[in-house]
Design goal:
The complex is a heterodimer of chains A (about 110) and B (about 110). With about 110 residues, chain A is mainly beta. Chain A has no helices and 11 strands. Chain A is globular, with a radius of gyration of 13 Å. In chain B, strands 2, 4, 5, 9, 10 and 11 form a 6-stranded mixed β-sheet that branches. In chain B, strands 1-3-8-7-6 form a 5-stranded antiparallel β-sheet, with no helix packed on it. The termini of chain B are far apart. The chains are: A mainly beta (about 110), B mainly beta (about 110).
């Protein structure tokens, strides 16, 4: 069966520091991969999605970037964090022939 | 206007009660519909897809009304473990999903 992992689970970082969040999926090949952010009391906002290695689409212009160096690995990065980057970051996947998305356990980021 | 709108609640219901949530969407070209459940400080989990003819999964029934552009979720015989936030989700003509901000349900003994 398929599983999705994210780490770290929680992170506290100072403003201006870099960020790297990792997501990996097991048990499937060539999944579509997504990064979402959920701010406190708000809905999920799609940040990036990828349909294959090296293929990244950005939904919201901001100081974040994403990369997909391997088929089942998706990385979210920032060179300099802002206070507004605080939130719950969720990675999700789906197979190409299904629109149902499945989420990882998330990373709770607090920028201080 | 938000693309997907939900009553934030909370809906406070006793165990055993029947509760229903509605969700409206603005894009008439929307093609797929889902309900997700999210527990406090956890990731959303797929509860059920919503099919045009309506569908049922145990105590949960989902309905779609394309003419009025709304989706409903009915929960029968509520359990304490049903307490969560229920997210209405819509897909247009791409792989991208649009999430509502959720309806909070609290079931009390």
């Amino acid at each position: 069966s398929q599983t999705i992992h994210q780490w770290p689970a929680t992170l506290v970082q100072p403003v201006g520091s870099p960020l790297s969040l990792e997501c990996t999926v097991e048990g499937t090949s060539n999944p579509n991969l997504y990064w979402y952010r959920q701010a406190a009391g708000r809905g999920l906002q799609l940040l990036f999605y990828s349909v294959g290695i090296g293929q990244i689409s950005s939904e919201v212009p901001q100081n974040l970037s994403a990369s997909r160096p391997q088929d089942r690995q998706f990385i979210l990065s920032s060179k300099k964090l802002l206070l507004s980057d605080s939130g719950f970051y969720l990675c999700a996947w789906n197979e190409g022939d299904s629109y149902e998305q499945y989420f990882g356990p998330g990373t709770r980021l607090t920028v201080t | 206007r938000k693309e997907v709108e939900q009553d934030p609640g909370p809906f406070n219901v006793p165990e055993g009660a029947t509760v229903a949530f509605n969700c409206t969407y603005s894009n008439s070209a929307s093609q797929s519909f889902f309900w997700y459940r999210q527990d406090c400080r956890k990731e959303p989990k797929l509860l059920m897809s919503v099919y045009s003819s309506g569908n049922e999964d145990g105590r949960f029934t989902a309905q779609l009304n394309r003419a009025s552009q709304y989706i409903s979720l009915l929960i029968r015989d509520s359990k304490l473990s049903d307490s969560a936030t229920y997210l209405c989700v819509v897909r247009h003509n791409t792989d991208k999903l649009i999430f509502g901000t959720g309806t909070r349900l609290q079931v009390f003994p």
